[in-house]
């Protein structure tokens, strides 16, 4: 299971389908089962001090999920009458909306960069 919940469609617990044997994939050069490419840190480690990119990404996604959950909880409490101040609910909802919008923009930029790299002639 991925660190942020369900495994996306077309993915296995080891990564995307068809990833095995590819560079960086399980069984491939630098993958979990295939050892490490020269000059590269093993998958899941940062190779230096501090958390790896994957750990930071997982932490950020958990934080995003927490922000969205907090906004949902505030909206439910407003509906049940537990919260009297509408502005608190609006602020929590707006924080969640902005966080989700930022995450989507970052995903789009990462996907754009990946597609640009894939179009490069080798």
TrEMBL record:
GO terms for cellular component: bacterial-type flagellum basal body. Residues 21-37 have a biased composition (Gly residues). The keyword Phosphoprotein does not apply. GO terms for biological process: bacterial-type flagellum-dependent cell motility. Residues 1-53 are annotated as: Disordered. The keyword Nucleotide-binding does not apply. GO terms for molecular function: cytoskeletal motor activity; structural molecule activity. Belongs to the FliE family. This is Flagellar hook-basal body complex protein FliE.
